[in-house]
Structures are given as structure tokens and as C-alpha cells.
Amino acid sequence: MDHLACFTPKDLTAKAAAPDLAAYRWRLLAQGDSWFSTATAKLDAHANLLQEMYFKQPTCAVNCAGSGEALSHMVDLESAPDFVRLLSAEDAPVWDGVLLSVGGNDLISAAQTPAHTPDGADVPLHLRLLRRQTEWGPPSAGVARYFSEPGWATYSDYLRTNVRHLLTLRDQGPSAGKPVFMHCYAVPMPRPAGAEANANSELGASGPWLYPALKACALPSADWAAVSRLMVFHLALLLKSMAADKEQFPGLHVFDSTAVPLAPATAGTSGSSGDWHNEIHLNHSGCLKIARAWSESIERVLSGEVLVVPGGKRRS
């Protein structure tokens, strides 16, 4: 097994010691949120998925996530010119696949949207994911009574539109039709565990992220873990449904990270706990567990391996 060799766009233009991409069996282009970030503080503290990926064949990735917070939100492609150029320009390399880590920060932002604007005006349900206490459904609905289905419909449309846009960019360049690999997210424990202070922190704050949002909506603390699970599983089902729609999302492959067993963080803790460095970021052990499983899934697609699934059906 070979560790994934990671380069930056700047490495490709280095006058001396530029990497020879032809030396690798598989060449990937990567972009994403903080789960792909190469910021030194992040790598020291909680790693990223790319660091922990291994392949049977020599594989490299040019990671455009960088040391800042490019593509913290999916539509922020203007702050990721290297990614757009390397993906869609006529003279861009031909990539064997594209790795994307997107959608999670948008989910957190949607959950953080308050029920009222600073001047006291109501924020309509279709623009937020959580209901305030007077809007809760019946107890028989379980934790779904706290969840805004109209808000989820808005988020779903947003995510679908932007993933389709990314696939369009792929098909404008030399890598047209190549597979695009996305991962789902793991289920965080809402808790008072923020990140290190950083002027460029994604989502405009250093956290915690879900913890204050759930408190602001007066959700019972006993339900916080289940609410987090509900939102992350909604996202996983959405991503998997997109991958299944080959007409609208050709070449999209989604890895279900929720199926990877992780050690959950302990409720109420403020530091690293279980497989989590802080409230929404995995530590090295958590990244390792997801990255290894995702690597195997990616390599099966790249190698064209055919799998036999229950019922005798075959799929690649």
C-alpha cells in the first residue's frame, strides 16, 4: 500500500523539483472544506482525510483546498481559481478522478441560521433548518419535530444545483466524464468544543458550531445527539440519491462515511474526545478510519473492479 502523495497547485509550477505526475498510476484533483485543509494548525491538530489515504497503486492528488478556507461554502468557487483552472481549462491535465469534500460546512451554516434577524424580524422556515420552540411539532414525531423540512428542501436544491455545476466544470475540460468522488460526513456530538482561534476560520467563527445553535432554539440537551444524527443522515441520503441519478449527476460516486464505526465524543467535553478533535473535526484516528475505507472504495472505481452485490447483480 502506498500513501497518497499530495501536492499543491504551486508545486506544479515550481521551476525546480516539480512533481512528475506521469510517475503515478492514478492522478487526482482535490478540493474541499476544512476536512481537506492543509493549514498547518489543522494538520497538527486534527489532520485531514487526504493525509490518511492509501492506495495499492501509486496515486497522487493535487489539493486545491490550500491553507485557507477556500470553498468553505460550495458556491465560493471565485476563491478557488486554481481548482477551476485545473479542472476545466483546455490545457489542464487529464485527471483520473476528482475528490470533493463539500456540503458539510453549508449544513452547519444552515443549522446556525437563527429564527430571528438582528432587528427581530422572523426568518422564514424555508431559510433555516431548526424550528424555535413555538414551532415544534408533536412529541410523537421524535426529534424530527425540531427540524424544518421547508429549510431542508431549500438546502437540497442548493446542494444539487452546485454539484451539477461542478460536474459541468469537469465536462468542460480534458477530464470530461471522469469520476467525481464525494464523501458523506460523520455524526458530530454537539458540545462546547471549538477550534483554535483563526482570523480565516470557516463559517466566520472558531466554534463551537452546533452547540450554540441548538441552545438558541431551546432544544432539550438529551435530544442534541439525535438531532445531529438526523441532519447528517439527511445529508448522506441526499448525496447517495444524487449519485444514483446517473442522468443528472453522471460520474458521481458517494462514499457513505456514516457507515464507518467511529468512537463518539463524550457529551459536554471541550477538548479532543473519541475520534473527534473538536465538535465537527475528526482527529487523526478518526480521519484514518474514514480515509482508509474511502480509499478502497475509490480504487475499486478507478480500477474498474466489478463487485457482486446481494441478489447476484453486478456493479462497478
From TrEMBL:
Protein name in the entry: SGNH hydrolase-type esterase domain-containing protein
Organism for this UniProt entry: Roseateles oligotrophus
SUPFAM superfamilies in alphabetical order: SGNH hydrolase (SSF52266)
Gene3D superfamilies: SGNH hydrolase
Protein origin, superkingdom: Bacteria
